[in-house]
């Protein structure tokens, strides 16, 4: 079965693959839910698209008023195989009727072990690997740091400018951006340091030069003797889909190897076929010591993992890692189905096809509009950075206005970037070509109108 045959959720309503607006966004039913949200849900939990979602599949999200929106965000890079993918739905239905929970730390079950085996097999490198499962990307990152500290018997951790690793206490400290992620939520854990990234559009440095700058700072301000781990997103997500210059990541990995420092690739956003390879690390020819995954892993069910060198993963005493729900059987069943789709249904090739469409359409836009300063990404993880053409300064106001106009016209787009001036494109890979083109037409008209 090809992913193109799986556009419609099994057993669910047939979802026409179309953009359809029958009310303004939000329509009255959506507005009713948003009013209830405002009085019942904590104000800190925001939303980007003002709708009440009732169904999703293929390339669309349908709201309670009957509007059908083109989805260029996949719920932040989660529904890569498509929302409610039939294989995921079937696996979940079967498992949920069998048992919903035993706690893997109490009574182990097969699907958790099978997910670990699959991750050990499909992550980069042919060394002996082990995995541990958790519930969210942030939890995976926290545990990768714990494991690296235990293994190296060192404490410091280096993260990078523009990095995003989560919203829990430790991962907030690793995350770069104060607003909205950190402001007022301190104090933050100690022994976290920040190094400069390679950001070719803004720093003009080669990969080697950017790596030298970062390594020099690490050596002078932290010291390899104190450093347990370097954590980096091979392609940054929330930070702006920043693709480092060639050579930057390999130089960091080499330095880590030479200095007994664990290199952690945070592939929570870039993993699982998104970039046109199973993991973004492969795009740069690097083999991380540890890799954190979540989001796309289970087709929308909450699951996350740390996978890496067996000797590092085994450093913790028994009982040091885990959690009540980590590797929940329903989420594991979903992950096994999603991984089957990633490996056997042409998803990686589809990511490249979608990426080619995204890049050709966005570079055409850039050629006619100097406010599109940069178009970058790999596979179906592509972004456009908007600037003031006179100064090159980030233009967050334009970016926000274009994104809001797209949503009002029935196209879900997400912004990102330290300066809030990047629109990222992360369509589900079950997106039909025509719908992707229509979505990009809407983006182009929104830009032209501002
Ligand atoms: N590491 C690289 O992208 C999650 C969250 C955005 P969780 N990014 C989207 C938001 O506003 O909360 C992410 C990521 C990278 C870690 C995480 C954290 O993953 O599953 O959200 O905990």
Distance between the termini: 43 Å
Mean pLDDT: 97
- Annotation, overall tally of beta strands: 15
N-to-C order of helices and strands: HEEEHHHEHEHEHHEHEHEEHHHEEHEEEH
3D structure, described in words:
The chain is of the alpha/beta class and 450 residues long. The protein has 2 domains: 184 residues, Aspartate Aminotransferase, domain 1 (Alpha-Beta Complex), CATH 3.90.1150.10; 258 residues, Type I PLP-dependent aspartate aminotransferase-like (Major domain) (Aspartate Aminotransferase, domain 2). The protein has 15 helices and 15 strands. The strands form 3 sheets. A 7-stranded mixed sheet has the order 4-10-9-8-7-5-6, with helices on both faces. Strands 1-2-3-13 form a 4-stranded mixed sheet. A 4-stranded antiparallel sheet has the order 11-12-15-14, with helices on one face. The longest helix has 22 residues. It is globular, with a radius of gyration of 21 Å. It binds ligand PLZ. Ligand PLZ binds next to helix 5.
SSE arrangement:
Elements: H1 28-40, E1 53-57, E2 60-63, E3 68-71, H2 74-77, H3 86-98, H4 110-122, E4 129-134, H5 137-152, E5 156-160, H6 169-174, E6 192-195, H7 200-203, H8 207-221, E7 227-232, H9 248-258, E8 262-266, H10 280-283, E9 290-293, E10 304-309, H11 310-313, H12 329-344, H13 347-368, E11 372-378, E12 381-386, H14 396-408, E13 411-412, E14 414-416, E15 422-425, H15 433-448
Parallel strand pairs: 3-13, 5-6, 5-7, 7-8, 8-9
Antiparallel strand pairs: 1-2, 2-3, 4-10, 9-10, 11-12, 12-15, 14-15
Helix pairs in contact: 3-12, 4-12, 8-9, 13-15, 14-15
């Amino acid at each position: 079965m090809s992913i193109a045959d799986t556009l419609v959720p099994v057993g669910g309503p047939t979802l026409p693959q179309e953009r359809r607006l029958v009310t303004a966004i939000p329509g009255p039913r959506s507005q009713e839910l948003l009013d209830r949200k405002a009085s019942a849900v904590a104000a800190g939990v925001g939303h980007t698209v003002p709708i009440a979602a009732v169904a999703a599949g293929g390339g669309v999200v349908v709201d309670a008023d009957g509007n059908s929106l083109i989805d260029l965000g996949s719920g932040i890079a989660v529904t890569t195989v498509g929302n409610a993918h039939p294989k995921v739905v079937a696996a979940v239905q079967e498992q949920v009727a069998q048992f919903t929970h035993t706690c893997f730390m109490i009574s182990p079950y097969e699907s958790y072990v099978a997910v670990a085996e699959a991750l050990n097999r499909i992550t980069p490198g042919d060394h002996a690997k082990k995995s541990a499962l958790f519930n969210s990307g942030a939890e995976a990152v926290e545990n990768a740091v714990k494991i690296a500290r235990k293994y190296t018997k060192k404490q410091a951790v280096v993260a990078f400018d523009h990095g995003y690793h989560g919203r829990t206490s430790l991962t907030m400290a690793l995350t770069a951006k104060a607003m909205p992620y950190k402001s007022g939520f301190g104090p933050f854990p100690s022994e976290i340091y920040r190094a400069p990234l390679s950001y070719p559009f803004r720093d003009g440095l080669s990969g080697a030069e950017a790596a030298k700058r970062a390594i020099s700072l690490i050596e002078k301000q932290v010291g390899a003797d104190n450093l347990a781990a370097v954590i980096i997103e091979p392609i940054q997500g929330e930070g702006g889909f920043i693709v480092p210059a060639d050579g930057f990541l390999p130089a960091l990995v080499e330095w880590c190897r030479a200095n007994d420092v664990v290199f952690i690739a945070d592939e929570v956003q870039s993993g699982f076929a998104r970039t046109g390879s199973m993991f973004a690390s492969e795009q740069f020819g690097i083999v991380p010591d540890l890799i954190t995954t979540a989001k796309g892993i289970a087709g929308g069910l909450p699951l996350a993992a740390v996978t890496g060198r067996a000797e590092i993963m085994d450093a913790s005493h028994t009982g040091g890692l885990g959690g009540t729900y980590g590797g929940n059987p329903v989420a594991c069943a979903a992950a096994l189905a999603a991984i089957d789709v990633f490996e056997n249904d042409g998803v990686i090739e589809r990511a490249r096809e979608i990426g080619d469409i995204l890049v050709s359409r966005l570079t055409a836009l850039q050629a006619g509009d100097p406010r599109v300063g940069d178009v970058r990404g790999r596979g179906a993880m592509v972004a456009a950075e908007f600037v003031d053409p006179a100064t090159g300064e980030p233009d967050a106001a334009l970016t926000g206005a274009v994104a809001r106009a797209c949503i009002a016209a029935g196209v879900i787009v997400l912004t990102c970037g330290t300066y809030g001036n990047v629109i990222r494109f992360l369509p589900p890979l079950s997106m039909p070509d025509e719908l992707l083109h229509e979505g990009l037409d809407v983006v182009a008209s929104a830009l032209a109108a501002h």
